[in-house]
From TrEMBL:
Species of the source: Sesamum radiatum (Black benniseed)
Compartmental location: Endomembrane system
Entry EC number(s): 2.3.1.225
PANTHER family, per database record: S-ACYLTRANSFERASE, ZINC FINGER DHHC DOMAIN CONTAINING PROTEIN
Protein name (Swiss-Prot/TrEMBL): S-acyltransferase
Length: 227
């Protein structure tokens, strides 16, 4: 569980590098829709076709690029992230293309750990009952730590168990949390749904793309800034 926690929180989620050279107006397609406060030379959205379904991609004014399909800008991290799922405040990290697999495995393994701890406490109480030939209530009073752990594991299961079930469903239909609660794709209009088997294979068996961010690169000093 701790290894998966580190892999999820410490890995680049799929940050898209900011574009220092915004797209020229003449390079934009004709099928575009200007947004409020923008000129026609730099439209807010444009249409791309994914598996026969038209999907709108938006221009990010912060990163100065048209976000690829399924990408979104995280207001907390202030970065565009590929296949953006959500920003996890518990981990302090975005969940996206490069760490979603580890995030799900972390949540699911935490669910199993809660189940194991819950069951182990009841087994321990049962052993006290058998060894001392006493009732379940008296056995429970002899191990208050087990009672506390039973209550704690039940509360934790309510959250991580529900989260595991939700993401099992999202993986089966190839949707992200962001898409589920924002776009509401149906089974027939979701261009990314390849079937349950292929959807699971895409998440767990596909190779993880290399990070597009060079974390060892030197930060370029902007002109006009003091040394």
């Amino acid at each position: 569980v701790l290894v998966l926690l580190l892999l999820t929180s410490g890995r680049d989620p799929g940050i898209i590098p900011r574009n220092t050279r915004p797209p020229a107006p003449e390079s934009l397609g004709a099928n575009v829709e200007p947004g409020p406060g923008q000129t026609a030379s730099l439209p807010r959205t444009k249409d791309v076709v994914v598996d026969g379904v038209t999907v709108k991609v938006k221009y990010c004014e912060t990163c100065m690029l048209y976000r690829p399909p399924r990408s979104s800008h995280c207001s907390i991290c202030n970065n565009c992230v590929e296949r953006f799922d959500h920003h996890c405040r518990w981990l302090g990290q975005c969940i996206g293309l490069r760490n979603y697999r580890f995030f799900f495995m972390f949540v699911f393994s935490t669910t199993l750990l809660c189940l194991y701890g819950h069951a182990f406490c009841w087994v321990y109480i049962r052993r006290i009952m058998d060894s001392e030939k006493t009732s379940i209530w008296k056995a429970m009073t002899k191990t208050p730590a087990s009672i506390a752990l039973i209550v704690y594991s039940l509360l934790a299961l309510w959250f991580v168990g529900g989260l595991s079930v939700l993401h099992l469903y999202l993986i089966s239909v190839n949707q992200s949390t962001y898409e589920k609660f924002r776009y509401h794709f149906s089974r027939h209009t979701n261009p990314f749904n390849k079937g349950i088997v292929k959807n699971f294979a895409e998440v767990f068996c596909s190779s993880i793309p290399e990070s597009k961010i060079n974390f060892r690169a030197k930060v370029q000093k902007k002109s006009g800034m003091p040394p």
